[in-house]
Amino acid sequence: MTSSTPPSSGRRRRDAAHPQPLDSLGAVPSCNPLPATSTTSHLQQSQPSFNQEEPGIRLVNLLVGCADSVANKNFVLANSLLRELSIMVSPYGDTIQRVASYFTYGLAAHIAGTGSGQNLYRALGIKEPSASDTFEAFQVFCEVCPFIKFGEAATTQAVLEAFSGEENVHLIDLGMVQGSHWLGLLQGLASRNGGPPKMVHLTGVQVKPNPRSSKSISNDDQHGKQLKEFAEKLHLNFSCQLISVERLEQIQAWMLTTQAGQAIAVNCSAKMHTLLYQEHEMCINHVLSIVQSLRPKLFSLLEQEANHNVPHFLPRFLEALHFYSAMFDSLDATLTRISPERAKVEQLWLGQEIINILACEGRDRVERHERLQQWRVRMAKAGFRSLPLSDLAVLQVKTFPSIAYGTGFTVLENRGSLILSWQERPLFSCSMWTC
User: Whole-model pTM?
Assistant: First the structure.
């Protein structure tokens, strides 16, 4: 798939850019035609003529019509709608054009039946993102969006409170991406009332940076080095262990090297949903049983507030369309259309999530987000109980997104947990648990 070049002007532009075609979609693999079902027939009859619609409404109707055709295996109609979509969408256009471009990619890949990894990208005619590109995109995502920092702020305060008065503390980060997330925690431990702990240990379980990709990246201990140097400046007795795994479910209790008498806290930031691909949930039950066996004082869970873990294609598509439209809209409010940071986040992070949700199945579909209520049921079954955030933690987390990123973001408390929303659309939840 050939990406067009972004506009050269540095000004924020709210006018609709001229749509640029996604050329490779003109050659979407053809499939055996099936007669239109009553659902698709009704959709075609009940919708107004596309040429009478506003461009944004037309795009949405085309996307939904194509997804409905895919769900009903009417691939002739789906291919026809894809060709029209490929002319209208653009990764550098307005918000709806941008988000629609990745849903168009995902629909095309689903029809091609390519699964994931190299075959998926080969079918779409685009280069597979490298692990380093994916990691860089995640770093930018953390900086320009409040979602990960929202979880960090809540978790840091909760861990400091859980470790209050403890002399030997151990934080286990399941799916740690970058060590800088924990610099604030180290500073808080060093300056706490009564003095710092006698021993601070961190275990970072690093998962392959891009589980949607076939590529991996070597573990170079840069994160551990950064943390150790910072801890030395704070005069903390600190040790760090990094564990590298291909997938999170590969961890075993013996890898975590806990000690008797340690106060343990566990964090998992937007990674637990990748374990939900098995019908009987063996992988997530395995990881949750390991965490429970540690008897942690705190288990922090950050997850997307969406339900993308449904077996039927059309409901999953519609849920994703609502969720990622809000995500892209929040980017539009904070970054200009020509921003290279915005393009990187959309193309190499959020866009890849969309493609994975639509095009992949089984073990390859890792973006299986579920809502907080579903996590509450699962965590209770696994033997965990909710640990409400303190008033101080709630106050700190509630104020920072709107101050740092704009008034469209709000944080609401929900039965002891926190939900971050954009324009009243819930996007991420952060919950705390204990045994």
Answer: 0.85
